[in-house]
Amino acid sequence: MFKTRNYKKFMLFWKVPRYEFRYPKSPLATLLGCAMRRKVVDGEEINTFENALSRYLGVRHVLLTPSGRMAFYLIMKAMGIEPGDEVILPAFTFPAIPNMCHIAGVKSVFVDVNIHTLNIDPSLVEDAISSRTKAVVVNHMFGEPADVGAISDICKKHNIDIIEDCAHALGSEYMGRKTGTFGKASLFSFSMTKNINTLGGGFIATDEDVIIERVKTELSRYKPPNRLELLRRAIKFEYLRMITSKPFFSLLIFPLIRRRRLAEGTNMLDEADSYEHKLMDGLPEECKTRFSNYQAVMGIEQLKRIDDYIDARNRSAALMRKILGQGDMGFQHGLPGSKSALQSFPVMSRNKESLATRLVMSGIDFRETDMRNCAAMGLFGKKACPNAERVEDSIIYLPIFGRHNSSYMRRLRNLVNRT
What we know:
Layout: H1 2-13, H2 27-36, H3 45-57, E1 61-65, H4 68-78, E2 86-90, E3 92-93, H5 96-103, E4 107-111, H6 122-128, E5 133-139, H7 148-158, E6 161-165, E7 173-174, E8 177-178, E9 185-189, E10 202-206, H8 209-219, H9 227-243, H10 246-264, H11 268-273, H12 293-303, H13 306-324, E11 330-331, E12 338-339, E13 345-348, H14 352-361, E14 367-368, E15 372-373, H15 386-394, E16 395-398, H16 406-417
Parallel strand pairs: 2-4, 2-5, 5-6, 6-9
Antiparallel strand pairs: 1-10, 3-15, 7-8, 7-12, 9-10, 11-13, 13-16, 14-16
Helix pairs in contact: 2-12, 3-12, 4-5, 4-8, 10-14, 13-16
């Protein structure tokens, strides 16, 4: 009895970080290994990774890109979407996506989201279509598949294309098929918080020969990746993994987070995570770089285990919903027959500030959303989208892990009891 009680106290000492950095090796060691083979920038692993992704999704072509947002830009250009054309977007999305439309001279037409799935509402899409509409962007928010079947029927009726935004959704499934296989082309992301993290980068998936050839031609003009930049990213990864390790985070970082939250209502890690949302008129030069062989090496290792990882996160999420369902939070809901990649675990609360304080008092760090109601930002025009506004105002990301964490589950129960 004494040992059990002490063990529980010991487990409750560990605080819960917002991230799980799951690359099984050291990115610095992987970079060193590539450097010793002189395969940091170019190498055979690039083709190996592209072919593995193609087989995994069941598409004819995959092409690695500098980032997910650049993948979207390249898709639009390759599809012949021109200045003055319109693209329909979900209002609740990452602002870099409508920003890419702006850079391409394309008008973003926003459609509100379904309050339950947090994805674009199919019942509102048809009213947004005009004679200038060239595509509908279907975003699988946080890895939860959108109703791409209903939207596909609408697009076929009006002879317009679907572009799938799968930045969160590598490994998600809709009606037994992987997301990213329903549209003309799809974009994916490998940034730091994604289910596969290659320190940035992304890819395009398509069955269209013309699209892939046009993108290849454009990418051939881009400069090779900078080795020092890759080193900087690897060091940043190692730093973040260190400060979110149990002893370091619990002893040094979390006390600072708690003090800042209680004193100022802010979180210092949110500042480090923040993305400056500003309108760009042209592509920054740093966007015009190719995907490196070093990043491909990292991706190959993680792709081997992605389905096991996603299944484990779904098991954790099911337990979290069971515990939190007794409280005052709302969840994102999936469609029948779908499988989420669970890139994040969002919860909605009518009193977000109170929830944030309760989380910190329960020893749990969390993330504010980096998604926005882009229809209300003023950067891309303004349109009333009440569901997107409500989601942005109420959403918080809870930590989600690919392994069972009994200490975390105990803290969630304590959180519910604080309601």
